[in-house]
Write a structure and sequence with these properties.
heterodimer; A: two-stranded antiparallel sheet; 12 helices; 11 strands; about 30% helix; B: mainly alpha; 2 domains; 6 strands
């Protein structure tokens, strides 16, 4: 049963123990919460940073324009085969990159929705600005709060246990930037701890109590002190819980250590399987800015398109999703977890002179997991010369905010208008 | 000469340097506002031989190909050692400012050229802005970092041209008027002006670090370029990079942008208010009237009422470097960098910590530099700040000649006063001075007086209390949110 903030604060009076203090900034916010938080509806957001090449991720293998725009990089239909020879074709028009064998299997099982042509009006080709636009769902790139941060402000304040986190990176992604809620950023679990002098273990409770007193003070408005202090409180509160919990993780799934996304998703599994409220998790993998040498080996041999930088990244992506899904299944959590992948833009349909692709616009978004209704959604953007913009980029078919709205309304039980500021249509990939 | 208080002296040292001991704060305070700023700015006349001697015995940068003695880790250890030991703190702080302004990463340039760039930034830190910018632009590091070396006639590369205007001088729009400062056409034209810029090492030059700048005439585009058409700065002709730099440095937009960056790094975050615009204009006048002298500009900023205002006090978030070096300097903790002369005899703790706090020196996240203030703060980086505090207090002095970082028992003894209240106040003062309310002081006193079962048993200065509670108190104060501010 979800615990509302009011219930928590009422109960809290009797349940404050060592190391557990309710910060005053929560008490002052003790109004009724606006969204009922359901910890059994979990969301994992996977950011592929750098701009993933959509046209070689979901390949339009019957489109003659695809082949004329990409004489070197395009996959022939006969090349849409995984290493074991099985086809990665998903429809009579589209096939997945041959490195995505595992996602193809999940697609066949109805666990993957591929939303094609996702973008936004007046696309920005700067990594930083376009990321900001996706993070904040503000088309002008001027928003300060992230879309998930806004959701967290509405749904997660007052929850006594850890509900949200970004895992595996040094910086907290802007998507999770909130006004009042502090989303933990966990680089790795072993560092995520409040340490005191090991010579005097008996003094540790005194240290924690004094720290918690300091970090639960109300701070004057304005300036940075308030944000620093609420972040300090959340850091130690979360650290204690993480240290108590994650060591209890046990799984037969082996995540390969050289796959950075798998390592981050393993951390997600550690949290989700040991802290039942952990529901809003965020991971990222970079390297998708493939301006050159997108295919081929280090010696410049481009005869095998299924090797190269882009193939390696998609293989990691595909492998990590499969292992994570298997881990969730093993722990009986697979029905509770929705995964959404995004990237700040796709690549230009026309390849460049360096066997790579330059910054583009619309691209597919993958929404995955048992809760989705698998299949193809949206529409593939036209590659016809007349339909490309002056930079040679495609026009978007689905606004990314429609994807967000579908997830907020149909999965998280939120009112997407409160987060996105307007009504967006339902893409249809959820029940 | 206007007098300043101890608190103002500490504020000045936090911003112009990396904080200081009570003796250093006294020394600065006694000089008054203008005297203190002059003293810190005219750093070339401060005797820094003790640091130079230490650097000579700790590092061997004679051969850039000697990887064990010349690598990124060694460069970081070298810079941290400078910041901890220098008697010229403003020299290092200003170098750090320029490292963030002309943010360049060794991941692309390699270690030799990032080191050369650091020497350039330090050497020209307070020169005319035109001179600094030209030197940085002609340095191998920048020519590699923003693809200047591949910017050649017929195949211009816009990378440097764009960032020169967007990040290094004017910004996309004027920070006061909001007007656009340049067009995409200007980016293309200016890229052509910089074609053919190269560097080389003269094979007869015995110094392996010495690289020279050259314009390769065969790669330089000698056709007419036209920039800033229709504006008072319009320029046309067979322009070279130097012509462009002179023109840009003479634009008011550059003065305003540079002032804004200095204010936000050294004074307080500015907004679009009329008051802040007037402040920017006031200092932009100094830049214009004093022949683009960075030294005169920063002198005006640091002696200003804005700098000494209430608004400026603790208005910034300490950067990782300020946390790490500041704590050592305020406490008088000992950092022995060791030496690279023998394997395993050096200590690079400070740089390692700094990475986990979010500031990997010589490797900023991108060309726009580190994100300041709340950009430094998330739950992990804060926990790592607390872990640094823990590391500092739990390391006891061993062999004084051993490399490492520690706080000695004698140091602790000098912090302790006869009762808990005075001890708390003394350390709050030593680590700031930090202003916290009486309730917080009470909680820290309770900590000092409590036994392991949480019973208040009082405070007496004995070796156990010093080693356990006074160390613990320093840790707790360094975990206060007030301590995270600068």
């Amino acid at each position: 049963m979800p615990v509302t903030r009011r219930q928590f604060i009422k109960r809290g009076a009797g349940m404050v123990t060592v190391g557990m203090v309710i910060p005053r900034f929560w008490l002052s916010e003790a109004r009724g919460e606006q969204i009922d938080f359901d910890p059994q509806r979990k969301l994992v957001v996977i950011q592929l940073a750098g701009g993933n090449d959509g046209f070689n991720t979901v390949v339009p293998y019957t489109d003659a324009r695809y082949y004329s725009l990409r004489p070197v990089l395009a996959f022939r239909d006969t090349e849409l085969k995984a290493k074991d020879g099985t086809s990665t074709i998903i429809s009579n028009e589209f096939g997945l990159h041959p490195a995505m064998a595992e996602i193809k299997q999940l697609y066949d099982a109805g666990r993957v929705a591929v939303v094609q042509g996702v973008g936004y009006p007046n696309p920005n080709l700067s990594h930083f600005l376009s990321m900001d636009i996706w993070h904040t769902a503000d088309i002008d790139g001027l928003g300060s709060r992230g879309w998930l941060g806004k959701y967290a402000d509405l749904a997660l304040i007052g929850q006594p246990n850890l509900t949200a986190a970004s895992l595996g990176s040094l910086e907290l992604p802007k998507s999770l930037g909130a006004d009042r809620f502090v989303v933990p950023n966990i680089i790795n679990f072993s560092l995520y701890n409040f340490l005191a002098d090991p010579n005097y273990p008996g003094d540790y409770n005194n240290q924690i109590n004094t720290f918690n007193f300091a970090a639960s003070r109300s701070m004057p408005a304005g300036g940075f002190l308030g944000t620093v202090n609420s972040t300090a409180f959340e850091s130690v509160r979360g650290a204690q819980q993480v240290q108590r919990s994650v060591s209890g993780y046990n799984s037969s799934v082996l995540y390969p250590p050289n796959n950075p996304l798998a390592a981050a998703l393993r951390m997600v599994a550690q949290l989700m399987t040991t802290i039942p409220e952990a529901s809003l998790l965020y991971v990222q993998m970079g390297g998708f800015d493939n301006h050159s040498d997108q295919i081929g080996d280090r010696q410049g041999d481009r005869s095998n398109k299924s090797i190269g930088d882009h193939a390696m990244l998609l293989r990691w992506f595909s492998e990590a999703i499969k292992l994570f899904h298997a881990d969730l299944t093993e722990h009986g959590l697979a029905d509770q977890v929705l995964m959404m992948q995004w990237s700040e833009f796709g690549r230009r349909p026309g390849e460049n002179a360096s066997f790579g692709t330059d910054h583009g616009t619309a691209a597919p978004v993958f929404v995955m997991g048992n809760p989705v209704r698998g299949g193809l959604y949206g529409a593939h953007p036209s590659l016809a010369a007349a339909d490309l913009d002056p930079a040679g980029n495609v026009r978007f078919r689905v606004d990314f905010r429609e994807v967000y709205a579908t997830i907020l309304d149909r999965w998280l039980g939120a009112d997407s208008r409160a987060v996105l500021g307007a009504q967006y249509s339902d893409v249809g990939f959820l029940g | 000469m206007s007098n300043i208080t101890q608190d103002e002296g500490a504020h000045l040292l936090r911003r112009m340097g990396f904080s200081g001991s009570p003796a250093e704060i006294d020394e600065i305070t006694a000089l008054g506002r203008e005297g203190a700023v002059d003293f810190l700015i005219n750093y070339e006349s401060i005797d820094n031989r003790a640091m130079e001697d230490l650097l000579r015995t700790s590092f061997d940068f004679s051969n850039p190909l000697d990887f064990p003695r010349f690598n990124r880790g060694e460069l970081q250890r070298w810079w941290f050692t400078r910041m901890v030991y220098t008697r010229r703190p403003f020299e290092e702080k200003m170098t750090l400012f320029w490292h963030n302004h002309f943010a360049t990463s060794a991941s692309k340039t390699g270690d030799l050229f990032i080191y050369n760039q650091n020497l350039t930034l330090r050497g020209y830190a307070l020169d005319r802005f035109d001179n600094l910018l030209l030197k940085v632009a002609q340095d191998p590091a920048m020519l590699l970092w923003l693809d200047g070396v591949t910017n050649v006639r017929g195949r211009p590369n816009e990378n440097f041209s764009r960032e020169l205007q967007e990040l290094f001088t004017m910004g996309i729009t004027d920070v006061v008027t909001g007007d656009p400062n340049y067009t995409e056409e200007d980016v293309k034209e200016i890229a052509r002006a910089f074609t053919g810029w190269k560097f080389f090492h003269n094979r007869f030059d015995p110094d392996p670090f010495s690289y020279r700048f050259i314009v390769n005439e065969s790669e330089h585009d000698n056709t007419i370029k036209t920039v800033y058409s229709g504006s008072p700065w319009a320029l046309s002709g067979n322009l070279g990079g130097e012509d462009v730099i002179v023109t840009i440095c003479a634009r008011r937009a550059t003065a305003r942008y540079l002032v804004k960056k200095l204010l936000e790094f050294f004074v307080y975050p500015v907004d679009g208010s009329a008051v802040d615009k007037a402040t920017i204009e006031k200092f932009a006048d100094v830049y214009v009237n004093r022949n683009h002298s960075i030294k005169e500009l920063v002198r005006a900023i640091f002696t200003s009422d804005e700098f000494f205002s209430e608004r400026a006090r603790f208005a910034l978030v300490k950067s990782p470097v300020e946390i790490i070096v500041g704590a050592i300097r305020m406490l008088g903790a000992r950092y022995n960098p060791g030496t690279s002369a023998r394997e395993g005899a050096s200590d690079n703790t400070l740089a390692a910590i700094s990475i986990f706090l979010g500031q990997d020196l010589f490797n900023p996240p991108d060309v726009s530099g580190w994100k300041l203030n709340l950009g430094w703060i998330n739950t992990s980086t804060l926990l790592n700040r607390f872990t640094y505090a823990d590391l500092l207090v739990v390391n006891r002095a061993r062999d004084l000649n051993a490399p490492g970082l520690w706080l000695s028992h004698e140091q602790l003894r000098s912090f302790a006063k006869k009762n808990s209240k005075k001890t708390v106040k003394r350390l709050l003062s030593r680590l700031g001075p930090l202003e916290v309310d009486s309730e917080m002081i009470g909680a820290l006193r309770t900590y000092l007086e409590s036994d392991d079962h949480g019973n208040r048993v009082g405070f007496t200065i004995d070796d156990l209390t010093l080693d356990k509670k006074v160390r613990g108190l320093i840790h707790l104060i360094m975990c206060l949110s007030e301590f995270q501010l600068n």
